Amino acid sequence: GTVPRRRPPGSDMGPGLRLLLLPLALLAAPARAEGGTAAAEEVQIEVLHLPEACSPKSKKGDLLNAHYDGFLASDGSKFYCSRTQNEGHPKWFVLGVGQVIKGLDIAMMNMCPGEKRKVTIPPSLAYGQQGYAQGKIPPNATLIFEIELYAVNKGPRSVEAFNQIDKDGDKKLSELEISQYLKEEFARDGKKRHPSAHDEILADIFKKNDHDRDGFISAKEYNVYQHDEL
């Protein structure tokens, strides 16, 4: 028989809270674009469908939910389809922070829920000269994505989220403030959890975010996405 795996802290919570727990390194795109020609090359965007009500428009730091298919421009072969992965659930990711290739971060700005786009991304904004063998993408490949965006939410590292947790407004998050935030989040989703889950998650958040170990998560430490507003 198989040994039951212990679920990691945070496996049963909402996407916003899960992303607060993740170290940024896990989220980076597999390859960085090659420099040099990037300035001359741009992402081409063709809007296939635009809903009448277009709000809110996506911006850097937003949490997006989307389906997308990826094709090689050279022969039109499909190398990726989000509908066949993860039981067909649309993907969640934070826009503009390198969780996806640079070209997609650019291509999905100012997009509204329900919008569909076909985008062409040059190699310099995708997987560059190395390609990405694991993803069946050859070197110097131009990529085409067909994207359907479902939801635009305030990202977990937004100024609004920080201020919501920072109850006393001192621009740093104490253990008490984050503990209170966790309680509110847990109450909102109504799932049954072991009492120790709260403490484990709290410890995990501080381990991954309190870089100077002073017992507080400062605006700078929380704000790994480098918003300007804080």
UniProtKB/TrEMBL annotation:
Pfam families found in the cross-reference section: EF-hand_7, FKBP_C
Q: Does the keyword Glycoprotein apply?
A: yes
Q: Which domain of life is it from?
A: Eukaryota
Which leading EC class covers this enzyme?
isomerase
Q: Name one GO molecular function term.
A: peptidyl-prolyl cis-trans isomerase activity
Q: Which keywords does this chain's UniProt record carry?
A: Calcium, Endoplasmic reticulum, Glycoprotein, Isomerase, Metal-binding, Repeat, Rotamase, Signal
Please give the catalytic activity noted in the UniProt record.
[protein]-peptidylproline (omega=180) = [protein]-peptidylproline (omega=0)
Specify the PPIase FKBP-type domain's residue ranges: 61-153
Sequence ranges assigned to domain EF-hand in this UniProt record:
153-188, 197-230
Statement: the UniProt record of this protein carries the keyword DNA damage? no
What is the name of the protein in this document? peptidylprolyl isomerase
Q: Can you name the source organism? A: Pycnonotus jocosus
- Taxonomic path: Eukaryota, Metazoa, Chordata, Craniata, Vertebrata
